[in-house]
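agent: user wants the structure for Haloacid dehalogenase from Penicillium chermesinum. delegating to structure tool.
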Amino acid sequence: MAAQTKPKAVFFDFMGTCLDWHSSAVQSAPASIPKDEASKLALQWRQQYFDENEERIRLNLAPEDIDQTLSRAMDKVLAQKFPHLQSHLGQAEKSHMIVKWHSQFAWPEVPQAIQSIREDLGLEVFVHANGTTRLQLDLIRSSGLKFNMLFSSQLLGLYKPSLDAYRKALEFIQRKPEEVVMVAAHAYDLRGAKQVGMKTIYIHRWTDDINEDMDKVRGEFDVFLENMEDLPRVIANL
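agent: tool returned. relaying tokens verbatim.
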């Protein structure tokens, strides 16, 4: 019987999976908007961002600057779901909220988990996320997280979950799919990685996948975790 292939590298989705984008978005909202309302706006804004990306994939359009996508998504969400907040969000306020997406902190358990995967397990760790390289560089600075390389949809020329987005990144690091683990808080992301042949670990974040059936998601992937505290141990045992 052939020996099981052990992981040699880990791809991490970034915002949501590693970073608390929600707190940053809520804190960036004007003080005139109540925090619970700002939270609802942030969650729908984020979902609309995913919907915008999905539409661009459907139309076979190239990745665009995430700031442009977020701006369009904000305008749609305000018009369709939060018209009562439009008076609080002029162009200056919306621009401020978009800029603040470039500054996010890691979820509390993430720095130690990634450090352990790098140092204790000796694995290479990469960001593999939609967005721009500039955004990822800014988020590395604000979060203090350390990776071997950053792969953005801008750099790859493809959005996840396009299968070629995963294949191209694998080609760059010269690893086979079965040698790499994809870690994400987004089921659509892991579904793509799974199709390519990568191992998949779902991280449940209350801020993400708000339209997914978690009972279904729990059984879809190799591992389902509530956070990253046990991630190094789980990867070591894959």
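agent: one observation worth passing along. Residues 35-58 form the longest helix (24 residues).
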